[in-house]
Amino acid sequence: MTKLLEWLLGVSLIGVAWGLFTFDLLDLQLPPQCRELAWPMPVYLLVVFGCYSLATVGYRVATFNDCENAAKELQAQIKEAKEDLKKKGLKINNDYLKQKSSSEVPLIPFKLPKLLRGGQTVKRGADLQSEGQSSENTRSGCELRNQSAV
Amino acid sequence: MASRKGNAKTREQPDKYSVLLPTYNERENLPLIVWLLVKYFGESGYNYEIIVIDDGSPDGTLQVAEQLQKIYGADKILLRPRAEKLGLGTAYIHGVKHASGNFVIIMDADLSHHPKFIAQFIEKQKEGGYDLVSGTRYRGDGGVYGWDLRRKLISRGANFVTQVLLRPGASDLTGSFRLYKKEVLEKLVEQCVSKGYVFQMEMIVRARQLGYTVGEVPISFVDRVYGESKLGGNEIVSFLKGLLTLFATT
After folding, report:
1. B194-231, pLDDT tens digit by residue?
2. Polar residues bias located where (chain A) (predicted)?
3. Neighbours of B83 (CB within 10 A)
4. Which of residues 219-248 of B touch A (CB under 8 A)?
5. Inter-chain contact B224–A120, Cβ cutoff 8 Å?
6. Domain that holds residue A26
């Protein structure tokens, strides 16, 4: 059964249950409070789901780990790789393997995200290396935004 | 497969890992990713090969690959180029045909995926006997570098919608840093029909359908191209179309 069919089935079941309670289709003589409760249920459920979605996505965006250490490590390894490859005889452009000073644009196309409309600022690759080394607290090099992030 | 005691591996071939690297205009990144792969595989001691599938890059990626082959050996760097840009799914099919390993690793060649995680993928696979192990940016200490708020919002939002609709049992569906058993990759690629992000999603969804087991390893994703190639309206629309197609057909 496809996911679409599963959903349609689920929605139908809920719809039938709602219809039964709201319109008393089985003629069970339900108390009026029951009917009053059941009647707006679909809208309530949608609203609850909407709130849950917003909260979940908001939480996940807020706790999305940033991997500054990984980026720093990568920059350092790129330098190391270029030196090693040059020794081993790799030839590309003349300036590809030359070391430039750290204040210049990094050698390889490290395209930095544009400074944004309302997001966090991102440091240039070269600047990252001159900062004090923050402790590598995760294997991946990503700082946990929430200690219990799963 | 019946379980065997003792030194079973001496009677079978040891595990070999084939890394598929589809490339297009990666002349500058290719040497770096190969260097990192050689470094980390060397340290881990696992047997490996790297298959470079270049789609006729006009920037000379293939020539760089040939130099790398001379440096590291033709047994470690295999070149299987194609004449023109033909898409990721066919690149995998093409690559797998020439893979001599029993496991295949797929990853991006632009340094957004770091080879240091491959050892973790391999350990995870051995630990659970998984048919495929997927790198996830959304769990544990996985994460991303180089994304602004907008990009993170789109990413998490899209992932949420996907989780609700498809309930796939994996946290990161659009990721493309994965380890597959070779026969599993072969089977899945011939079944998948989507393109782009949705192709990677389809691989996992179909894997679950066919009863394959999926393990996850948190990874860091260092995005260096986002600033210039933003995720635009077109891509979002085609993602949603692909998602709905998967929703209706799987």
Report:
1. 877 789 999 999 999 999 999 999 999 999 876 666 67
2. 130-150
3. 8
4. 219-228, 246-248
5. no
6. 2-65
Nearest residue of A to residue B219 by CA position? A140
Distance linking the first and last C-alpha atoms of chain B: 29
The reply to whether B11 falls in a domain is no
Q: Is residue B136 part of a domain?
A: yes
- Tell whether A15 is covered by a domain: yes
Query: Cα(A134)–Cα(B104) distance, rounded to whole angstroms?
Result: 35
Please tell me the distance from the alpha carbon of residue B116 to that of residue B101, in angstroms, as a whole number: 19
Distance (Å, rounded) from C-alpha B102 to C-alpha B18?
8
Cβ-nearest to B220 among A70, A119, A122? A70
Partner-chain contact B160 A53, CB within 8 Å: yes
Q: What is the pTM of this model?
A: 0.81
pLDDT in single tens digits along all 150 residues of chain A? 889 999 999 999 999 988 888 887 777 777 778 788 888 989 999 999 999 999 999 999 999 999 999 999 999 999 999 999 999 988 876 455 554 433 343 444 444 444 433 334 444 444 444 444 444 557 888 888 865 444
**Could you give the number of structural domains in chain B?**
1
Of B64, B144, B249, Cβ closest to residue A2: B249
**Cβ neighbours, 10 Å, residue B3:** 5
Name every chain A residue with its beta carbon within 8 A of the beta carbon of B150.
116-119
Residue A122's pLDDT is 41
Q: What is the pLDDT of residue A150?
A: 43
Cβ–Cβ under 8 Å, residues A79 and A126: no
B177 touches chain A (CB under 8 A): no
Is residue A81 situated within a structural domain?
Answer: no
Q: What is the CATH number of the domain that holds B146?
A: 3.90.550.10
Interface test with A, best of B27, B161, B220 (most A CBs within 10 A): B220
pLDDT at residue B243 above 80?
yes
Q: Is residue B209 less than 8 Å (CB to CB) from chain A?
A: no
A128 part of a folded domain:
no
